[in-house]
Amino acid sequence: MKPPEFRYRRAESLPEALEVLAADPDGTKVLAGGQSLMPVLGMRLAEPEVVLDISRIADLTSAAATVDGGMCYGACTVHADVEDGRVPDVTNGLLPTVAAGIGYRAIRNRGTIGGSLAHADPSAEWPVVMAALDATVVARSATGSREITCAALADGYFTTVLEATEILTEIRVRPVPTGLTWGFCKIARKVGEFAESVAVTAIDGGTARVWLGGAAGTPLHLATVESALSEGARLSQPDVVRLVAADLVAAESSDADDEYRRHLHGVSCWRSMRDAMERTANGAAKEAL
Amino acid sequence: METIATPRGVGARVQRKEDRRHLHGRGQFVADIALPGMRDAAFLRSSLAHGRISSVNGGGLVHGRDLWTAEDLEGLVRPIVCDARHPAFQHSEYPVLATGKVRFVGEPISMAVADSRAQAEDLLARIDARIEPLPVVTDPLAALEPESPKVHEDWPDNRFIATGADLGDVDGAATEAAVSITRYYQMSRHSGIPMETRGCVAHYDQRLDELVIYMSTQTPHLIRTALAPLLNIAENRIRVVAPDVGGGFGIKCNLDPEVAVVAAVAMRVGYPVRWIEDRYEHMVGAAHARDHRYRVTAHASATGELLAVEADILVDVGAYSVWPWTAAMEAGMSSGMIPGPYRLRNYRFTATSVATNKPPLGPYRGVARPGACFAIERTIDEVAIALGMEPYQVRLANLIEPDQFPYTSVTGRIYDSGDYPESVRRAVRLIDHDRIRARQRAEHPDPDRPGGLRIGVGYATFTEQTAHSTAEWAQRGLPVVFGFEQVRASIDPSGAVTLFAGIQSHGQGLETSLAQIAHDVLGVDPDSVSVRHGDTGTSPYGIGTFASRSMVMAGGATHGACTELADKIAAIAAGLMGCRKDQVRLAGGKVEGPEGAVTLAQVAEAAYLRADLLPQGVTPVLESRCAYQPTVETGTYSYATHAAVVQVDTDTGQVALLDYLVVEDCGRIVNPLIVDGQVHGGVAQGIGSALLEEFTYDQDGQPKETTFMDYLMPGSGEVPNIRVEHMETLSPFTVLGIKGMGEGGAIAPPAAVANAVTDALRGLDVAANQTPITPARLWRAVHSRTPRDSRTEGIRESAGWPEVHR
Predict the structure, then answer these.
(1) Average of pLDDT values for B505-534?
(2) Max intra-chain CA distance, chain B
(3) What residue in B sits closest to A270 (Cα-Cα)?
(4) B118 touches chain A (CB under 8 A)
(5) Predicted pLDDT at B2
(6) What are the C-alpha distances in Å from A66 to residues A153, A243, B715?
(7) Whether the complex's predicted ipTM surpasses the cut of 0.90
(8) B163-191+287-469+633-784: same fold as B2-27+484-628?
(9) Are A190 and B118 inside 8 Å of each other by CB?
(10) Which of A204-213, A239-248, B2-11, B472-481 shows the highest mean pLDDT?
(11) Which among A2, A104, A193 has the least Cβ separation from residue B117?
């Protein structure tokens, strides 16, 4: 489990990184926190010519407010920065809550948001959470840049719409509107593991958004559940399990055929909704005080 | 002569001497050893579970330098043979590199050597091993069917061995029973996962004409003994050194084929060769453990008295017989320990060890007993449920009473001492049993409807056979019999004490606890005692550290050697002070007489450098050696009751541990800090067995868990605060009354947790009969209401249970 020989390039600036990448896009792997790439190299699942380290580029570790009151996080912002509040949060606590449950502390100290989104593990937290938040990423190449919605970033297991010449450089998170409450549920075999099922619910007055991770190659938008919830139906856990099953069939998820996994996704969605409801109730109670 | 116990001796909470170097990162493990010119090895491992090797093409690599194949090693190293001395045992060979056939995914085929491990792995990619696939057998029950592919072609079938016995009058007792139940149990395949993987560095010392092997092992002398005939050299030409060893748990008690290859090659090349196992190799290539299946029938009276037990034990031992344990170890030991701590007189068993296309089984903390404990302790609870009793009451109705010791079990083991029922009573009290029952009534208004959270409490009581010696190992038919342990105690001319021990300490803190014993006898500060172990070049022959034996065995030998030394010190000191020998006592590094004292240094000076001062008849030199073996050879028996409180989420199948309690008795506690640490570590591993750890294979014999992504270990999030309560009943059979205790923590958790889960689901009439209790397994059982007497998933409905001719 030792990588084969490769050339290591540490870029000091984004233009330098983009230039190195442009020189050999297919033979280069971009290294950020290394929490996924290093094992992949060790197991020789990837044998790049060049490993391009972008973790020291200052632009990619900074965070800045956007004009709409949102946040723009450099791609190399580590999970622990979010967990500990070293970067501002505009999601009313969702991002720090999610970050605190990723892997173990040692992983959170190195693993990056951009790396997680670009790696596109369907069981990881950031892809599904950022999709639910309607966040976007900026992808840059030597010849230009474009903005991609997180909902459209992944296009299969461990694959994204990013071009080989592109580096994911920033993540733009909109401020959550006043009145929006979120709920989050991650079900994993043990603390720090990848999710068996991970669900995010956002409720804003009469509309709801429900996203599910770990059930298919990409995060799933659960339209059936969402419309039932938006219509104000009082949903029980069995209701949600049934509705999620319908969404899984529609999405052609392989978990649709597995009684346990199908049920588990229903439970995680229901719990994320319950979490959201409880937060709404708590918020109302606080206001009443 | 008299000695005085102090706060530094036996029973004292002395901090481990070895922690100083480990906490400062100054330990030295095999991978820290760098010898000039050293090269690194990597093994090409089989990607097929069963196949015939048609050719191994080196792709231009130089044979005998870059590449070593089975052919290149011909005449240099023999295959490992580990046949049990039993007429029914099938002979087999474990080639150090696959020869003719491969029999499991991960079996070493060739070794590449290069300047670095990465480069050696590069070379592996150039080797073209052509293997013609053969039908694969992974299900041990299917392996027993007549048309099954055979793992070893010259055998009549895939049984390594099958034995059985009919003790007492099972059929007679069964007719008296108020209730007879049959249950199936399964403890799935998993293994010890030490932080430090296996590994070795070997080089040939031309000056001494000696092969030196630094190796991460628990048994350096045994490795020397095993390697000598394989390499066809005398033992005095091999030195095995175990430096710091980062966890063993039994996995480092075996003669590894990889080490034999590295050793053979190092004898031929002019440079040291190193192999450091990586985690993938450990998961596919190191010995595995457990993989037990049971069918147990219990016959009980209306008051819960166990009248008779029948047990069919089936162990999937994988492809090979591992030296020195043999493929019979798991099933044999399990059959002996099923009767557990109970007054059972009627017992019938079969014990079948089956070969399949999987890695071979070796010892792992608890060895066979976690499975046996799981089977009998789950059965006790099932009897209680059938009779409507509290499970702890059934235990109390059957446990051996304190006045019955020494008690010879129905399988001939001599239990030495203790108060087994008291361990149960204390556990019931300390876990707050009645409060849990009240909570269940309050919190589970609809116990027979799934959904929501349930809490449950479960117990497991066991005896732990420890420090078993000659009679036990001889009866098991091992190629070697582990009777004794040796310690040489030496006082040098400066008066400093060194213990040279044949055991090996890899986390047990023996450098501290042996020094505590020396302190009690010689009156020297334990910190000043140097304990040397793990090196065949410096220590007297010893067996090693396994079977919870080191404190009993090496502790006894330390006591014996130091006692002999103390006698000589007293004689010399009395001579120096002009008093009688029986007037002196050893304390504080001095020897005190009626008037004044002499220091140990003065005594040592006389013994070595001023022989003119020695009393008449006293020989020079302060050194003694003791080979210790307890008086009763079937071992000394620690025991414990574990209690677990769990919360089961019936919507997800997840189990959380809310509380965990151990009430244990390991006789004389030499160092309470170390004992607690051993219990904690064992329980953590037992929780892994109960809930997380599992190696599974698809029908082609491909392993599904090869990284920590899939093979889940318990972490701080899964292990609750473990409460430990001690009892201290001395063993009448050992020096100081010490009993072994290293493994016990790992034995009971699968049973205790499964009993707690079953208790939580009592209203649903579902039982946890297979470990690990994964969320998917548990959820499916809950939602399909799997009957409690169903077969487990590894025991197919269609499969007949193997016949054994007694």
Answers:
(1) 96
(2) 89
(3) B651
(4) yes
(5) 46
(6) 21, 37, 40
(7) yes
(8) yes
(9) no
(10) A239-248
(11) A2
B718 and A CB contact within 8 Å: yes
* Interface touch B451/A259, C-beta < 8 Å: no
Question: Cα separation of B515 and B295, whole Å?
Answer: 47
Of the candidates B785, B779, B793, B780, which has an alpha carbon nearest to the alpha carbon of residue B762?
Answer: B785
Q: Cβ–Cβ of B709/A259 closer than 8 Å?
A: no
Structural class in CATH, domain B33-134+194-248+252-285: alpha beta
Beta bridge partners of B110: B44, B69
Domain ranges of chain B: 2-27+484-628, 33-134+194-248+252-285, 163-191+287-469+633-784
Q: Which two tokens stand for residue A66?
A: 């956007």
pTM: 0.97
Domains within chain A, CATH numbers bracketed: 7-53 (3.30.43.10), 58-173 (3.30.465.10), 180-288 (3.30.390.50)
Q: What is the mean pLDDT of chain B?
A: 96
A260: chain B residues, CB-CB within 8 Å: 653, 775-776, 779-780
Question: Domain B163-191+287-469+633-784 classified CATH 3.30.365.10?
Answer: yes
Chain B residue closest in CA terms to A2: B118
How far away is chain A from the Cα of B717, in angstroms, using its nearest Cα? 6
Q: Are A172 and A137 in contact, with CB atoms under 8 Å apart?
A: yes
B243 and chain A in contact, CB less than 8 A: no
What fold is seen in the domain B2-27+484-628? Aldehyde Oxidoreductase; domain 4 (3.30.365)
With CB atoms and an 8 Å threshold, state whether B715 touches A190.
yes
Question: Is the C-alpha dihedral spanning B305, B310, B312, B313 positive or negative?
Answer: positive
Contact B714 A190 (CB under 8 A): yes
Average pLDDT, chain A: 95
Confidence check: pLDDT of B709 > 50: yes
Query: Which of B40, B38, B47 minimizes the C-alpha distance to B108?
Result: B47
pLDDT band at B333 (very low <50, low <70, confident <90, very high): very high
Of B121, B712, B780, nearest to A189 by CB-CB distance is B712
